[in-house]
Amino acid sequence: MSSKKLILVTGINGFLGAHIVDQAIKAGYRVRGTVRSAKVDFARDSNSNYGSDVEVVGIDDLAYGDFTDALKGVEGVIHAAAPLVGKDTPENALAAAIDGATNVLRQAEKAGIKRFVLVSSIVTAKGFGDPSTAWTENDWVDTSREKALASGDPAFVYVSEKTLAEQAVWDFAEKHPNIDVTSVNPPFFIGPFAPNFRFTDALVSQMSTNSLAYTLLDPTGTPFFPIVLTIDVRDVARATVHALTSPPTSEVGRKRLLLVPQVASWKDVAEYIAEKRPELKDRVSVAIRTDSVPAPPKGPVDNTRAIEVLKLGSVNDWHTTFLDAVDSIIEAEKNFAKQGKTFH
């Protein structure tokens, strides 16, 4: 029997989830990953390169599903599964996010597991377009289930899902200090697809937040956010894995870790891609290349505490992040082209 520690990772088929598996294996863990039952065989095939270090289990209902068997022998949990924006009704999305996070956490605590890591988001601190110059771990978006449902805005529903789920996790953590909780709160994560990531079809939606990088490769593409607040997806995955061995809350205080290491203007990113990949110059968005919105002189988040607590060391800068993302997207395009398909 393997001496490697076993961890549970939810949502391993996702853009980030696949990277978490990859980083966890590199860090010496075994991974038990959850996906929907219909995708178990697909996920097993996708992760076959890791051999017996990755096993896959099917759980269809995050909010009410039974994780008893999935948690057996597990020493830590990374909860990465989350609804995508606008892919379900607001009621279902809120339930999956909020009740799903607390369901996994509650069952993990009951099973005697000592470490729980939540993949949250910077949008729990400040909503899209917030003009504040500094965001801290004490900031929260003002929302509720009722406000989210009444808004009719998929983006605000998503912000509410992440905010209310994280708040529910912290409420539970305060009452159950025997399980050490960390939340990692990144902005949009960009980067290459993990070696174990697979598309089921040529759908841009399956790129997750890498669809922002894909916008750069559309001559008519326009960003929905004025500046680029981003982090390399590999660094987010690494952060969640490092959180499993981070100093305990009793030593460093509540570990709600905002991590926004990269700020750039869309124009700078577009020009850099055109310079480094001249064969793609004609594809780069015209609107983005002529964008006049400058990046602020510094980002809104002080990353010092997050990087120190998580022992991350250096993180990738946006040049590496976006260039690797674009290269990975182009490779995926070429693979689908062999099947006569294009992204849509």
UniProtKB/TrEMBL annotation:
Record-annotated NAD-dependent epimerase/dehydratase domain positions: 7-251
Pfam families in the cross-refs: Epimerase (PF01370)
Record PANTHER family: NAD DEPENDENT EPIMERASE/DEHYDRATASE, STEROL-4-ALPHA-CARBOXYLATE 3-DEHYDROGENASE, DECARBOXYLATING
One GO molecular-function entry: oxidoreductase activity, acting on the CH-OH group of donors, NAD or NADP as acceptor
Keywords: Oxidoreductase
Upper taxonomic lineage: Eukaryota, Fungi, Dikarya, Basidiomycota, Agaricomycotina
Organism superkingdom: Eukaryota
Family: Belongs to the NAD(P)-dependent epimerase/dehydratase family. Dihydroflavonol-4-reductase subfamily.
Cross-referenced Gene3D superfamilies: NAD(P)-binding Rossmann-like Domain
Keyword Cytoplasm recorded: no
Keyword Oxidoreductase: yes
Protein name: NAD-dependent epimerase/dehydratase domain-containing protein
